[in-house]
Write a structure and sequence with these properties.
This protein is mainly alpha-helical and 230 residues long. It is 79% helix and 3% strand. It is built from ten helices and two strands. A two-stranded antiparallel ribbon has the order 1-2. Strand 1 and strand 2 form a beta hairpin. Helix 4 packs across helix 6 and helix 9 runs antiparallel to helix 10. The longest helix has 34 residues. The N and C termini lie far apart (63 Å).
């Protein structure tokens, strides 16, 4: 029993560290562009450096962390041009996912998406942004999975990783969060009708609204930084 625990523990610690660190990056607890302080993170997460470093490697492969020469691991930071380019690609991937999912989704998948949607709505009512975002991301992934196209899924996951933190922060404005929830209502209804054109349109519009909020936030942050430097 002891040997089994010892052999399983490193993998479990690495997975735990990856999940915790990913959440910190997505939810902005580690600011974009900030260097990951290994000593502080080890203390905060109650981990040794080995599982933490494995987690950082995993997140670097996902695109949430950049490994910068002579600086170490840094939280991903996208400039405005990169944000626009990434959202442009993501809109196409989201739209195609929706169109194919409307044709291919199974009754079981549809029931699961509906269940997550109702849970997400409850989180929205409680103003529980962390749970809302987790369910939101799961719904988008489920729609993508229902498209049944492995190449699309791999590309979607790769591009979406770059936007996770930005998408999370885009819901922090109450009015825009309400609009996003309404858009999700219409997405689920379109999927239930198996209306691929309508679902594509809703997904693309939803992502464009996210993009606009993110750009507003980036410009506001840049203006504040510029004022501070002055």
């Amino acid at each position: 029993m002891t040997a089994q625990i010892l052999t399983m523990q490193p993998a479990a610690l690495h997975e735990q560290a990856t999940a915790r660190l990913r959440q910190m990056l997505v939810e902005g607890l580690i600011a974009p562009g900030a260097k990951l302080n290994e000593r502080a993170l080890c203390e905060q997460l109650k981990l040794s450096r080995t599982p933490l470093r494995e987690a950082i490697k995993t997140l670097a492969a996902e695109g949430l962390v950049e490994l910068v020469p002579n600086r170490g691991a840094v939280a991903l930071q996208l400039d405005e041009a990169a944000v626009l380019d990434t959202f442009e690609v993501m809109a196409g991937l989201e739209g195609l996912s929706g169109e194919l999912a409307a044709q291919r989704v199974t009754p079981e998948e549809l029931a699961e998406i509906e269940a997550m949607h109702y849970e997400m709505k409850a989180a929205y009512t409680r103003r529980d942004l962390s749970t809302y975002y987790r369910l939101n991301a799961a719904i988008h992934r489920a729609i993508n999975a229902a498209a049944r196209n492995p190449v699309l899924a791999a590309t979607y996951n790769q591009v979406n990783t770059r936007l996770q933190a930005l998408r999370f922060r885009s819901n922090q404005d109450g009015e825009k969060w309400t609009r996003a929830m309404q858009e999700h209502d219409r997405m689920v209804e379109a999927l239930k009708r198996r209306d691929g054109a309508a679902l594509r349109e809703e997904l693309v519009r939803h992502l464009q609204h996210k993009r606009d909020v993110v750009i507003e936030q980036l410009r506001a942050a840049a203006a504040v930084a510029g004022t501070g430097k002055a």
